[in-house]
Write a structure and sequence with these properties.
Blueprint: H1 9-20, H2 24-37, E1 42-48, E2 54-59, H3 66-71, H4 99-106, E3 108-114, E4 121-127, E5 130-137, E6 142-148, H5 155-158, H6 164-181, E7 186-191, E8 194-199, H7 210-221, H8 224-227, E9 230-238, E10 241-248, E11 260-264, E12 267-269, H9 272-281, E13 294-300, E14 305-306, E15 317-318, H10 321-348, H11 384-390, H12 418-424, E16 429-433, E17 437-442, E18 445-450, H13 451-466, E19 472-482, H14 485-491, H15 495-500, E20 504-507, E21 512-519, H16 528-541, H17 546-565, H18 575-586, E22 601-605, H19 606-612
Parallel strand pairs: 1-7, 11-13
Antiparallel strand pairs: 1-2, 2-6, 3-4, 3-6, 4-5, 7-8, 9-10, 10-13, 11-12, 14-15, 16-17, 17-18, 18-22, 19-21, 20-21
Helix pairs in contact: 1-4, 2-6, 6-7, 9-10, 13-17, 13-18, 14-16, 16-17
The structure holds adenosine-5'-diphosphate (ADP) and magnesium ion.
Length: 617
């Protein structure tokens, strides 16, 4: 007896629909894409019960005539391509001609549609894939399509729908992705008949670049205080590969990746490698475990990307993925660096273009103008004569700062005669505020430096670049760390990572570790949490290849060591120690932020100060 039977078409279609329609958001995606393909400029989405009861999309696109309105629900019915070859250069979102067929198989559909050159529109009602009603009716130009009672005819699928809240969250996320990708379109979202979001076109000026429009869109979608942290990004590899968009600066981040969206030729896609490239661009700029916000549009020649590898077109495949990743990473690094320089250049420009040196108060005497002098931002110590003549007053040693507390963690001076220099230095350092911030008087305002963040960066760079020179000290009383055998087994093959960084650690018995020497910077500190942290990183990153693994752990270890060794908020510093810190900071690369991405300093501009005192409007 034969066992195989061909499924009747309506049953087969219900099964095939599973490919396209897994949850309400999938339908929303197909319908909005159809509206976009129909060149709509206004798109409204209506949702009830997280899409389970109703999904309706109303557009003002070019609509369909009566025949097409009926045909659009047939399998493989599309107006967008006529042969597979055209896929190479496709510029519409749809092309498979299966979305409406699938959707009609799993819900009750009402379609109203009209083209602009006709008076009357068409209304079609479909249930279970069969047309129940087809009438001529009055309606607006465009298309209004509603899906009621999703999976009403497939109870097995219906019960897999998630809670209303979950489906609603997916829909909102998707809706916003469309809004970001198409800032020129007016989008509205209603839930249970109530308006939830309304984003009028963000293309205020035809000439405005797409990037500016995206930032305007961010302002509509996110709270103002988030959007104001967005920086425009614009880079290209060639005519056939460009990126535009907006990314958050170093001062703003989230605890999850939900603010990161990638679009390839305006399609929202998910791609792990692109996210990693983006995060690499932020390395050392934002804290670990935090994520930026980023709207990244990748425009590529359609022949260099395959958009047909995923049933819902949520993933794509590039012919040259590395090229795209590199472009993203570099563009992000560049934009962040430029932004940081712009923000902090002024205050940390220790040698301004004219007149005064470093942190001096302004001098009006023409003899102090050095207009043609090359002005590297962190120039060497001024000559004696310059120092003398620019010195507004001698820095007096303030008894309050005299303490030994800081000695243990002070940076080993890279300039041995620091004390001599200190006595004649021209920095106008006001002092330490709240035992946490260094206050510096500048022509442009009051510059504040976070002593911990600044020294953390200094030490991080020192540990990263010169770890072989780091002086170590033998402990008179070794530190014993109790841990589990499991942890010791994890750590044992990697102890060299510690050794290379000046931490003499060995196994001591079955469940103990012994530390006999540490870098001088860490003298007297308990390293237990550092060791436990490294064990956790080893477990987390052991799937990486060995080079990557070593670099990742090393980098994290340096940041952690720097954090431990750096002077803390609340530590009292002497005048000399403060000046040493500033000098070291001058010479340090990446000095604008600490390794966790917090700023090391910022300027309270004289303008702001004067405004507060109403000296200036
Ligand atoms: P695809 O988008 O892959 O072509 P669909 O099943 O989504 O397949 O749609 C089938 C056809 O119906 C489309 O090719 C288009 O011609 C027409 N269509 C669907 N939605 C709309 C709409 N909102 N406005 C105008 N035409 C539409
Ligand atoms: Mg479609």
């Amino acid at each position: 007896m034969t066992k195989i039977k061909q499924l009747p078409p309506h049953e087969a279609q219900k099964i095939a629909a599973g490919q396209v329609v897994e949850r309400p958001a999938n339908i929303v995606k197909e319908l909005i894409e159809n509206a976009l393909d129909a060149q709509a400029t206004q798109i409204s989405l209506y949702i009830e019960d997280g899409g389970k009861k109703l999904i309706r999309v109303v557009d003002n696109g070019y609509g369909m005539n009566s025949d097409d309105a009926q045909l659009c629900f047939a399998k493989h019915a599309t107006s967008k391509i006529t042969s597979v070859e055209q896929l190479e250069t496709i510029n519409t979102f749809g092309f498979r001609g299966e979305a409406l067929a699938s959707i009609a198989a799993v819900g009750k559909v009402t379609l109203l549609t009209k083209q602009s050159d006709t008076q009357q529109g068409t209304k079609i009602i479909i249930e279970g894939g069969h047309i129940k009603d087809h009438t001529i009716t009055a309606c607006k130009t465009g298309t209004d399509i509603a899906i009621h009672n999703l999976f009403y005819n497939i109870p097995a699928r219906q019960k897999f729908l998630k809670k209303t809240q979950t489906e609603w969250r997916h829909i909102q996320q998707l809706f916003h992705a469309f809004c970001f990708a198409h800032p020129s379109i007016h989008f509205k979202l209603f839930s249970e008949d109530k308006p939830i979001y309304n984003y009028p076109t963000a293309q205020f000026d035809e000439r405005e670049s797409h990037t500016n429009n995206i930032i305007s869109r961010c302002t509509q979608i996110w709270e103002h205080n988030q959007a104001q942290h967005m920086l425009a990004i614009n880079a290209e590899h060639s005519n056939t590969l460009k990126i535009t968009g907006a990314i958050s600066n170093h001062q703003h981040y989230r605890y999850n990746r939900n603010g990161i969206l990638f679009f390839v030729n305006k399609r929202w896609i998910k791609n792990y490698s692109l996210s990693s490239a983006l995060l690499k661009g932020y390395l050392n700029v934002i804290p670990p475990g935090r994520y930026p916000m980023a709207i990244i549009n990748i425009t590529v020649d359609p022949t260099t990307v395959d958009i047909n590898i995923h049933p819902r077109k949520e993933e794509v495949k590039f012919i040259h993925p590395r090229r795209v990743e590199q472009l993203i990473k570099n563009a992000i690094k560049e934009v962040l660096e430029e932004n940081l320089s712009n923000q902090i250049k002024q205050p940390v420009d220790f040698v301004p273009q004219t007149k005064n040196f470093g942190f001096d108060v302004p001098h009006t005497s023409p003899s102090f103008a050095y207009p043609h002098q090359p002005t590297p931002p962190f120039a060497a110590t001024p000559t004696k004569q310059e120092k003398k003549s620019t010195l507004p007053f001698e820095i007096t040693h303030n008894k309050q700062f005299e303490t030994k507390e800081y000695e243990q963690t002070i940076i080993q001076p890279q300039t041995p005669n620091i004390n001599q220099t200190t006595s004649t230095t021209s920095y106008n350092l006001i002092g330490q505020y709240k035992k946490t911030y260094l206050l510096i008087e500048k022509e442009t305002g009051l510059f504040l430096i976070d002593q911990h963040a600044a020294q953390e960066r200094i030490l991080y760079e020192l540990f990263s670049t010169r770890f072989q020179d780091i002086a170590t000290t033998k402990l008179i009383f070794p530190q014993i760390i109790n841990t589990t055998q499991d942890n010791i087994q994890t750590l044992e093959p990697h102890l060299t990572i510690f050794h290379r960084n000046g931490i003499g650690i060995e196994q001591f018995g079955t469940n103990q570790l012994k530390i006999e020497s540490t870098p001088v910077h860490l003298k007297g500190q308990s390293l237990e949490d550092l060791v436990q942290q490294v064990i956790a990183w080893i477990q987390e990153y052991q799937s990486l290849d060995s080079d990557k693994f070593f670099n990742t752990i090393n980098e994290k270890l340096h940041a952690q060591m720097a954090c431990k060794a750096a002077v803390k908020a609340g530590d009292v510093l002497t005048q000399e120690q403060m000046i040493q810190l500033l000098k070291d900071l001058e010479k340090t690369p990446n000095r604008f932020t600490c390794p966790h991405g917090r700023p090391t300093g910022w300027l309270l501009s004289i303008n702001e100060i004067e405004k507060k005192f109403k000296r200036r409007l």
